[in-house]
Amino acid sequence: MQSKLNSVKWGLVLAIFTILLGFILGAAMGGAEDQIKAFWSASAQPGLATVYNNDPQKITAIVERSWKMMQRAHMHAAAIGAASLVLMYLLACLNVATLYKKWISILLGIGTLGYSLSWLYTAFAAPIIGNIPATKASIHILAAGSIGMLLVGTTAILFFSIKALLSNEER
What we know:
- This protein is mainly alpha-helical and 171 residues long.
- 84% of the residues lie in helices and 0% in strands.
- It contains 7 helices and no strands.
- The radius of gyration is 20 Å and the shape is elongated.
């Protein structure tokens, strides 16, 4: 089995790292919620007059929205990381050229990590920027590129899986 997994090893490493990131974020959220929110609130303070129009309630609101973005980072890292692991294992078992396996798994791994990091960046940058949509727009290339990699990688595995299922060859 290890020889099969060797063809997707770098994608596996990225997916496992992403799952670990999700676990770390979950632990941090459970153990340091007040500290994280205080950090975000302090990060927003320099913009109180210019970004938040001297309204502390707007800072409170962006901190709460940032918390939701961090929750998304945590959930996406764990879920997409796990889904990517399953897809890569399936890919490793298919009769596909090793080069395809290597690059498809790397594509999935980078997409998995990149998408999770885009939510994490949004969580930490939003209090400074002062606006969730503007923060998302600032990293649109990372998020959209990551989603694209996930879609291309998943579609490729779907294609090769269907091809294998429709094949008359006994493997």
